């Protein structure tokens, strides 16, 4: 009997093969789920189909674990097939994030704000510029596109700008797979004669070289505490990009995606067609000779829609291919992509080809080695938006287009015999405005960027608690630009024989990083530490040549230009940095977390005595729900805080002033030249000191969440080059002076109103507001201009002594004044004269009537262009994302919004000055009324100028038509007429996709098929009228306060519709 029971027991406990499939609640297979026989080391992982197979005792229990899902424990009970549906764990879905130096940390352990976006979210509305994928989705992140031109870049600023210097773009540091990745906006031109100033055309930012399909995740490190370990370049935040790698389950996955996009120009300014080309003189006579403005008579002839006809629909083709695979000891990822974009302007476009390889291999149980390399080549075909500094009558395509009268047929740019059509053939070329069709068909402007990045890394695992990692990386690219102005253009006389310019910018970055990691647990205490050292070497060179007047027509070559008309230049910079760093992290009972970091850098760009600078940080968090009874309402609660410092060095060669020989005559140097900017041998590093506090709450098992942050930062010892007295021998002088202060808040609210097997609805609302100011500055500098974004007397500027960091200065109409006692600016005390009598001065009355100048009969202008007229910083920005899923059908949309912040409508200024603006149709140009006070007596004055009548203005007889035209010219001089505090609500994108994978189950080859439809920029509601899309900025100016908030005749933004397929094999 005993033998019988023993034999039955052995039979009952025999091993069997268990197979099955693991899915989520929607039926989707879950890849990489670890299936373990409980209390043993026997286990396996699910494959691409969620399938698994292993041998286990028939009485055993199987444990299923996967990040983002709750563990499942299932009794075998002799079953050979066990399918498991795993439940989402909302508290763990984003529990681990990538932080500084690629270190993965639990989110609850962080004492600062970090936002991570996964590949699925980034590719939901795939953008060729990965920066644009963050727009409206991350609190505290402000993204501004430089226009709708093909290949146009974008700027990204986190929590406001921290440096006032034009040599700093205030954009975050980009790190791709541990390698610092340059994101410069490369201006490849040789001089202002190219017209390639940042305000005259658009450039690509270099993160566009990344293939978005390669990105696995992007982490936005916002505060100084989050980024401090990366060193000097991380003071403006860090974007950590992790690219994809192969799986470890032994499978090979092939993916192909293809997308077609159809785009049209959006937000094109409306042009009046009532009045034709011409202008009236003082006698009331209509002048049309050599006049291109639209102040003429009523147009009774044909009306041409020149703007609509000029833009074309754009086609974009985007294809990407990847192969990924691996096994438990190694993996690989290989990809290739091709992107072709046709511009909305004829002849313009952007194309990009990329390749990437990532690989990793374990050697034994103690060594892991890896390598990655990427190659990209991008070509941009573009055009100038406005004129170069010395280009004469108008090489700018967009300014010429918007200024072209609708009474003239702009498409008539060439005669039947192939010669150039001229509107004013009896005048010299340079006096005419160039026809946009001539510019895009005869001139040429291109750039080519070729880039390679790569890294090798090795990790040695000494014990379970100690390892050593080494990484060496390279980022290298060349940018070749080419500008050709064809002979016969309406440009300055010396360029009418043609002009050629080429430039090559080379960038080479090399870095190494050695890091020792320690991690140990003692009871309730968990301790981790790291120490490391980093070296960086950054080298930039620029070689340029330009010349004019081709000796033999039709041959475009420098060899065809006379020596005296050719110029060459070359520049070189080299920067080295060495840093050592360390971090200690400790936690108790997974409830209290504390992190302390420190880094010391030595930079070659600072004076020898000041090259070394140290900056620490401390951060911590308390998960207070660990102290509370478990409940289903408040399921997670954390408070956090941090304090940190980050040092910033200077740009290369800021400590000295260099001279060079000039004016070569008969082979001899006839003098020396020097930079406009003088150096300083006493520079100190900038130091940013910041702190932040925040709280994170999750309710109802993660169905509703709130994340709030308040931050404050001051960046002192600003390294800047303000305009000082020219008796110094320089126009600008590099100094340490002043500080930039930023303070603000960030709020993110998440919710899942519906969560069932077949239907899910998720919502994410984020919003943020920043207030940036410029602190005390060197005496005598009241306004700090750091960008070439200026038009119509309005300039982008930073205002010292507590003024706006994103300010604007300009002219305005004077208002009536009253007598008030003057005040001493230094002491704040009222001024008195020698006899004790108050010193009285004239002060404008806020909201008072405008002054009228008797000399002009129009409003009196405050001629000083340094008046503060606006603040370009929004009061609040944010976005609302909504995702719906019903079975295999998914739909999502993104709204983003902006409240406040001034924009200067330079487009309307330009149109108004030429009589093209709709606003100039006031009273059908029959009359205008000037009403205010006399500028001398302050007595009320009201004058109405009527067409067909004459007026005596300061002893001069002037026609009513002339005065109406002069009124609008006077109107343009008042900056406030074109400045508006702007609000908008924008439907940025909608996305619709259907996953056919369940319909093709059982296929041996095709494993997945997803079809997608995406629409971008469908509409927006705004109080901003008459200009371009208010989101874009004037050109590509990013230095200092940048060119955001200045709208001037750019290439319109685009509305696009995309159709795509994603296939998995």
Tell me what the structure shows.
With 1065 residues, this protein is mainly beta. Among the domains are: 13-85, Immunoglobulin-like, CATH 2.60.40.4130; 790-814 and 850-873 and 903-981, no CATH class. The protein is 6% helix and 48% strand. The strands form 16 sheets. The protein has a 22-stranded antiparallel beta barrel. α5 (397-403) runs antiparallel to α6.
Indicate the topology.
Elements: H1 2-12, E1 15-23, E2 34-37, E3 43-45, E4 51-57, E5 61-65, E6 72-75, E7 84-85, E8 96-98, E9 104-106, E10 114-118, H2 119-124, E11 141-145, E12 154-158, E13 173-176, E14 179-181, E15 215-221, H3 224-227, E16 238-243, E17 252-265, E18 279-280, E19 286-287, H4 306-310, E20 314-327, E21 330-342, E22 349-363, E23 367-381, H5 397-403, H6 436-442, E24 444-463, E25 466-485, E26 499-522, E27 525-548, E28 566-588, E29 592-603, E30 612-622, E31 634-648, E32 659-661, E33 664-665, E34 668-669, E35 672-674, E36 677-678, E37 686-699, E38 704-716, E39 719-720, E40 732-733, E41 735-736, E42 740-755, E43 759-774, E44 790-791, E45 794-797, E46 803-804, E47 807-813, E48 817-821, E49 840-844, E50 851-853, E51 858-859, E52 861-871, E53 876-886, E54 889-899, E55 902-905, H7 906-913, E56 927-934, E57 940-946, E58 950-953, E59 956-959, H8 960-972, E60 979-981, E61 984-995, E62 1008-1022, E63 1046-1047, E64 1054-1064
Parallel strand pairs: 1-7, 13-16, 36-40, 50-56, 55-63
Antiparallel strand pairs: 1-4, 2-3, 2-5, 5-6, 8-9, 10-15, 11-12, 13-14, 15-16, 17-20, 17-64, 18-19, 20-21, 21-22, 22-23, 23-24, 24-25, 25-26, 26-27, 27-28, 28-29, 29-30, 30-31, 31-37, 32-35, 33-34, 37-38, 38-42, 39-41, 42-43, 43-46, 43-53, 44-45, 45-47, 47-52, 48-49, 50-51, 53-54, 54-61, 55-60, ...
Helix pairs in contact: 5-6
């Amino acid at each position: 009997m005993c033998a019988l029971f023993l034999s039955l027991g052995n039979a009952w406990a025999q091993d069997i093969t268990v197979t099955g499939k693991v899915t989520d609640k929607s039926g989707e297979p879950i890849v990489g789920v670890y299936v373990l026989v409980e209390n043993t080391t026997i286990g396996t992982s699910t494959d691409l189909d969620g399938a698994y197979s292993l041998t286990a005792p028939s009485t055993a229990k199987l444990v299923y674990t996967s990040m983002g899902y709750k563990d499942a424990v299932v009794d075998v009970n002799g079953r050979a097939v066990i399918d498991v549906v795993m439940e989402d764990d909302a508290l763990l879905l984003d529990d681990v994030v990538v932080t500084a130096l690629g270190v993965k940390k639990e989110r609850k352990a962080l004492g600062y704000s970090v936002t991570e976006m996964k590949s699925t979210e980034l590719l939901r509305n795939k953008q060729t510029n990965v920066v644009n994928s963050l727009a409206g989705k991350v609190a505290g992140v402000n993204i501004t596109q430089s226009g709708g031109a093909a290949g146009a870049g974008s700027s990204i600023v986190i929590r406001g700008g921290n440096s006032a210097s034009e040599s700093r773009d205030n954009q975050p540091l980009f790190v791709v797979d541990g390698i610092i990745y340059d994101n410069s906006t490369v201006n490849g031109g040789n001089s202002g004669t190219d017209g390639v100033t940042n305000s005259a055309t658009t450039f690509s930012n270099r993160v566009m070289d990344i293939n978005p399909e390669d990105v696995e995740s992007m982490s936005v490190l916002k505060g100084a505490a989050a980024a401090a370990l990366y060193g000097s370049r991380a003071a403006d935040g860090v974007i950590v990009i992790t690219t994809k790698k192969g799986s470890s389950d032994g499978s090979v996955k092939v993916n192909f995606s293809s997308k077609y996009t159809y785009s049209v120009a959006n937000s094109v300014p409306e042009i009046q067609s009532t009045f034709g080309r011409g202008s009236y003189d003082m006698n009331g006579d209509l002048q049309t000779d050599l006049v291109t403005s639209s102040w003429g008579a009523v147009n009774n002839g044909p009306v041409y829609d020149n703007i609509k006809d000029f833009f074309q629909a754009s086609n974009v083709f985007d294809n990407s291919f990847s192969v990924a695979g691996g096994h438990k000891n190694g993996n690989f990822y290989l990809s290739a992509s091709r992107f072709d974009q046709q511009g909305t302007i004829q002849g313009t476009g952007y194309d990009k080809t990329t390749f990437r390889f990532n690989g990793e291999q374990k050697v034994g149980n103690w060594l892991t080695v890896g390598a990655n390399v990427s190659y990209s080549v991008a070509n941009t075909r573009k055009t100038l938006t406005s004129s170069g500094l010395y280009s004469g009558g108008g090489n700018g395509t967009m300014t010429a287009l918007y200024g072209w009268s609708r009474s003239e047929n702009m498409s008539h740019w060439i005669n039947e015999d192939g010669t150039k059509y001229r509107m004013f053939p009896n005048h010299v070329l340079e006096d005419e405005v160039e026809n946009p069709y001539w510019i895009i068909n005869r001139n040429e402007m291109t750039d080519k960027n070729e880039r390679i990045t790569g890294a090798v890394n090795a990790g040695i695992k000494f014990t379970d608690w100690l390892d050593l990692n080494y990484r060496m990386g390279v980022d290298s690219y060349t940018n070749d630009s080419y500008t050709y102005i064809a002979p016969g253009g309406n440009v300055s006389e010396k360029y009418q024989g043609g002009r050629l310019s080429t430039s090559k910018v080379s960038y080479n970055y090399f870095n190494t990083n050695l890091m020792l990691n320690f991690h140990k647990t003692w009871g309730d205490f968990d301790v981790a530490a790291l120490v490391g050292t980093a070296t960086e070497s950054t080298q930039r060179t620029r070689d340029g040549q330009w010349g004019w007047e081709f000796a033999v027509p039709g041959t475009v070559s420098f060899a065809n230009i006379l020596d005296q008309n050719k110029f060459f230049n070359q520049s070189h910079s080299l920067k080295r940095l060495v840093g050592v760093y360390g971090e200690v992290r400790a936690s108790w009972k997974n409830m209290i977390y504390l992190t302390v970091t420190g880094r010391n850098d030595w930079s070659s760009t600072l004076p020898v005595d000041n090259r070394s600078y140290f900056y620490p940080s401390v951060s911590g968090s308390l998960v207070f729900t660990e102290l509370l009874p478990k409940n289903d309402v408040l399921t997670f609660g954390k408070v956090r805080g941090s304090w940190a410092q980050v040092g910033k060095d200077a740009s290369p060669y800021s400590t000295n002033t260099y001279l060079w020989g000039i004016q070569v005559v008969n082979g001899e140097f006839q003098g020396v030249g020097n930079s406009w900017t003088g150096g300083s041998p006493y520079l100190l590093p900038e130091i940013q000191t910041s702190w932040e506090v925040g709280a994170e709450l999750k309710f109802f098992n993660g169905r509703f969440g709130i994340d709030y942050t308040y931050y404050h930062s001051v960046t002192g010892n600003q390294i800047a080059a303000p305009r000082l007295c020219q008796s110094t021998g320089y126009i600008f002088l590099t100094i340490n002076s002043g500080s930039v202060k930023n303070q603000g808040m960030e709020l993110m609210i998440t919710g899942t109103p519906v969560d069932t097997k077949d239907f899910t609805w998720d919502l994410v609302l984020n919003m943020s507001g920043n207030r940036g100011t410029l602190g005390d500055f060197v005496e005598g500098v009241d306004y700090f201009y750091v960008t070439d974004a200026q038009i119509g007397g309005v300039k982008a500027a930073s205002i010292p002594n507590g003024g706006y960091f994103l300010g604007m200065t300009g002219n305005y109409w004077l208002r009536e004044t009253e007598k008030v006692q003057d005040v001493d600016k230094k002491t704040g005390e009222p001024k008195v004269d020698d006899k004790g009598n108050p010193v009285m001065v004239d002060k404008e009355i806020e909201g008072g009537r405008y002054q009228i100048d008797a000399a002009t009969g129009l409003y009196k202008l405050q001629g000083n262009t340094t008046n503060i007229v606006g603040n370009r910083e929004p009061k609040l920005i944010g976005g609302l994302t909504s995702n719906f899923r019903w079975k295999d059908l998914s739909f999502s949309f993104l709204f983003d919004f902006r409240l406040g912040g001034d924009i200067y409508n330079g487009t309307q200024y330009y149109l108004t000055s030429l009589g093209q603006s709709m606003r100039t149709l006031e009273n059908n140009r029959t009359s205008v009324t000037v009403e205010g006070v006399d500028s001398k007596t302050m007595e009320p004055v009201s004058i109405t100028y009527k067409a067909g009548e004459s007026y005596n203005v300061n002893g001069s007889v002037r026609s009513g038509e002339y005065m109406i035209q002069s009124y609008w010219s006077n109107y343009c001089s008042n900056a406030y007429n074109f400045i508006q505090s702007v609000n908008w609500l924008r439907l940025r994108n909608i996305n619709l996709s259907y996953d056919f994978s369940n319909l093709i189950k059982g296929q041996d080859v095709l494993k997945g098929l997803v079809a997608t439809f995406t629409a971008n920029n469908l509409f927006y509601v705004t109080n901003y009228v008459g200009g371009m899309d208010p989101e874009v900025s004037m050109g590509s100016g990013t230095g200092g306060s940048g060119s955001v908030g200045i709208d001037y005749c750019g290439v319109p933004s685009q509305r696009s519709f995309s159709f795509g397929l994603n296939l998995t094999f």
